[in-house]
């Protein structure tokens, strides 16, 4: 129970991945919907399990898990503020981009994706530099702090990694349960994404940027 309480904040923060969820939804609109979507999730899982196993065996070198939480006070306020302003600027640029020509959008290219490519994409997404590393390392550190044996830590690591995937697996489960209506919805969604892809991407970036900017300003003001 202690390990569950300690790791919960990192599960919550690390599993909110709207951009990756959009990718999974896009893969559900391909010729191999379930296989491609689950291959993307599998790439994510494999990388995190491998990284987590390495971290478990070097647990003594991990930082204090509390210091890796965004609200820990361990990050200078300028850090989230700089990222926030950067995301706001990038989001504005992406928002203003015109939609790609028919047949050349990401959705069109995704329709031809094979499972092996989806797996590599899932692996690359989680391996790319990003704040997800802080959440993941923080979660592993929390497990190392609350569990004594390596076996228990590795078992808990598996559960932690699986819990992080809920936002990616949920669209697949919904698709399987409501497949006939889901196909119609996905077709309409694909048309919408083709026309509004830049605005969706820009909106996600600006939403993240706004959150980080407000957080950074409040930290600077000592709120």
Describe the structure.
With 223 residues, the chain is mainly alpha-helical. The protein has one domain. It is built from 10 helices and no strands. The chain has helices at residues 2-15, 18-27, 33-57, 78-96, 106-110, 115-127, 132-146, 150-163, 166-177, 179-221. α4 (78-96) crosses α10 (179-221). It starts with a helix and ends with a helix.
Task: Give a quick precis of the structure.
The protein is an all-alpha fold.
Outline the secondary-structure elements.
Layout: H1 2-15, H2 18-27, H3 33-57, H4 78-96, H5 106-110, H6 115-127, H7 132-146, H8 150-163, H9 166-177, H10 179-221
Helix pairs in contact: 1-7, 2-3, 2-9, 2-10, 3-6, 3-7, 3-8, 3-9, 4-10, 7-8, 9-10
Q: What integer value in Å does the Rg equal?
A: 19 Å
Please give the largest β-sheet.
none
Number of strands: 0
Q: Helix count?
A: 10
**Amount of helix:** over 70%
Which band does the percent of strand residues land in? under 5%
> What is the overall pLDDT average?
79
- Class by helix and strand content? mainly alpha
Calculate the terminal CA-CA distance, rounded to whole Å.
Answer: 32 Å
Number of domains: 1
Principal-axes shape call: globular
Order of SSEs, N→C?
A: HHHHHHHHHH
Low-confidence stretches: none
């Amino acid at each position: 129970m202690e390990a569950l309480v300690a790791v919960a904040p990192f599960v919550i923060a690390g599993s909110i991945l709207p951009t990756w969820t959009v990718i999974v939804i896009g893969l559900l609109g391909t010729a191999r919907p379930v296989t491609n979507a689950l291959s993307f999730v599998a790439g994510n899982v494999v990388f995190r399990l491998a990284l987590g196993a390495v971290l478990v065996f070097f647990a003594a070198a991990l930082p204090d898990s509390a210091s890796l939480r965004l609200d820990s006070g361990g990050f200078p306020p300028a850090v989230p503020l700089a990222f926030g302003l950067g995301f706001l600027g990038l989001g504005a640029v992406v928002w203003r981009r015109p939609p790609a020509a028919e047949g050349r959008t990401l959705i069109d290219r995704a329709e031809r994706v094979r499972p092996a490519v989806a797996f590599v994409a899932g692996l690359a997404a989680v391996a790319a530099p990003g704040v997800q590393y802080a959440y993941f390392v923080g979660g592993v550190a929390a497990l190392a702090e609350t569990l004594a044996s390596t076996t228990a830590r590795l078992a808990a690591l598996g559960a932690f990694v699986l819990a992080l995937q809920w936002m990616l697996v949920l669209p697949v489960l919904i698709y399987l349960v409501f497949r006939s209506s889901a196909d119609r919805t996905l077709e309409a969604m694909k048309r919408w994404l083709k026309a509004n892809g830049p605005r969706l991407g820009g909106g996600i970036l600006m939403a993240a940027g706004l959150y980080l900017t407000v957080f950074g300003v409040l930290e600077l003001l000592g709120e």
